Amino acid sequence: MAAKIDFEAFDRRGYRTVGAREGYAEWAPTYLDTVEDEMDLALLDRLGTVAWQGTTVADLGCGTGRTGAWLREHGAAAVDGVDITPEMLAQARERGMHRSLAVADVRDSGLEGGAYDVAITSLVDEHLPDVAPLYAEAARLVRPGGAFVIVGYHPHFIMASGMPTHYDRPDGESVAIETHVHHLSEQVTAGLGAGFTLAEMHERIIDDVWVRLKPKWDRFRGHPITFAIAWRSAPSA
């Protein structure tokens, strides 16, 4: 596994940095206007090893309910969500896609162990100093033979762009949310260590679609911006 590297070594913006709870609380009113589906939902569309129809899903770091809505649209029977930010959960409640919603950390969700066909987390892991506890929690939640899906901000893009997860305040100040670089080898090591088997992986590359959305990103054409990994837990004996 590659040595852990602090994001500060790559930071080209120098924005004031806040923690995830504080940052997403302030970002919540404009979050849906600034996050593109190409970041995460486009990758979920590519997954072929996860059968969503009729599943019970633990949505870890559910935010405003974007992922929950995608899950229900793709046949999930019930989705339970947790997030550390009440302001984001309030928007998820308005969507009405979740069976339950609670304020909790993705590494200690409080959800029932072994009760889910799938655990999923999207655009969350870069805010964690270590991904191993997230994988351990996902392994606790899913049934034997269940799946864990993680979609994340690609470490290559974080390093190449020097861009942290950030938002703009109403007064125009750009504020960074605590960002960590996790090499893909860390994801693999954490997944295997939690007892999962790697089922598939995809990377979203900056292409014409992305450049139309973000013309200034033409200089990043060909670079991966996000990734999705689907893991499978061991079946029952």
Please state how the strands of the largest beta sheet are arranged side by side.
4-3-2-5-6-10-9
Number of strands: 10
Number of domains as seen in the coordinates:
1
The N- to C-terminal Cα distance equals 31 Å
Helix/strand structural class = alpha/beta
CATH topology: Rossmann fold
User: Mean pLDDT, rounded to whole units?
Assistant: 96
Rg is 17 Å
What is the helix tally?
9
Strand content: 25-35%
Could you name the CATH homologous superfamily?
Vaccinia Virus protein VP39
CATH level 1 name: Alpha Beta
**Succession of helices and strands:** EHHHEHEHEEHEHEEHEHE
Low-confidence stretches: none
Largest sheet: 7 strands, mixed
Any idea what the CATH architecture is? 3-Layer(aba) Sandwich
What gross morphology would you assign? globular
- Helix coverage percent: 25-40%
Description:
There is one protein chain. With 237 residues, the chain is an alpha/beta fold. The protein has one domain (7-233): Vaccinia Virus protein VP39 (Rossmann fold), CATH 3.40.50. It has helices at residues 20-27, 31-34, 41-44, 66-73, 86-95, 132-141, 155-161, 184-193, 208-213; strands spanning 16-18, 56-60, 78-83, 100-103, 116-122, 142-153, 166-168, 174-177, 196-205, 224-233. Strands 4-3-2-5-6-10-9 form a 7-stranded mixed beta sheet, with helices on both faces. Strands 1-8-7 form a 3-stranded mixed beta sheet, with helices on one face. A hairpin with a 5-residue loop joins strand 7 and strand 8 (174-177). The longest helix is centred in the middle third of the chain and has 10 residues, at 86-95. The mean pLDDT is 96.
